């Protein structure tokens, strides 16, 4: 008995990286793993990116798993993140589908390195950042309930944030402030003042 695969052929998009001279002539180098591939997909799906009013400033990617992309607008009134997400998420979903379900985080670019780092560590919140420019090191303090979000599964979130910002990142926890114990109120008994008897002469 013979089997035949009658499924429809899958259509895939590739990034043309290079054309080189090989032993049998010209060879085409294609890629779907290159971070630039994600940028080209957004240019295809987002008119604001293709027109240049929204710029892709940085991309960090672990192919097939997750990508972080930082975007900025050079045109007044254009929301770069909203433009890339699209109405009801339709634009970013189209990119995700092309990437086979790869998660894509879109963050707002900032020239302030500390603010960019905080955004890149999303969904963690309430972070404080101390930068050592000489060592290209960032020390991030996070509330204890935000540490796992900042680091991510198997360190993925903090690893991508490091690639996006070009910094080494150390995350440390900040203990939650302890609430002062409330002392129960003790009832005090009211004592009546004893009055001296008045003498009648």
Summarize the structure.
The protein is of the alpha/beta class and 201 residues long. The chain has 2 domains: 13-109, K homology (KH) domain (GMP Synthetase, Chain A, domain 3, 2-Layer Sandwich); 111-175, GMP Synthetase, Chain A, domain 3 (2-Layer Sandwich).
What report would you give on this structure?
By secondary structure, the protein is of the alpha/beta class. The chain has 2 domains: 13-109, K homology (KH) domain (GMP Synthetase, Chain A, domain 3, 2-Layer Sandwich); 111-175, K homology (KH) domain (GMP Synthetase, Chain A, domain 3, 2-Layer Sandwich), CATH 3.30.300. Helices cover 27% and strands 28% of the residues. It contains 7 helices and 8 strands. The strands form 3 sheets. A 3-stranded mixed β-sheet has the order 3-4-5, with helices on both faces. A 3-stranded mixed β-sheet has the order 6-7-8. A two-stranded antiparallel sheet has the order 1-2. A hairpin with a 3-residue loop joins strand 3 and strand 4. Helix 1 crosses helix 4 (90-98) and helix 5 runs antiparallel to helix 7 (156-165). The radius of gyration is 30 Å and the shape is globular. The protein starts with 14 loop residues before the first strand and ends in a 27-residue tail after the last strand.
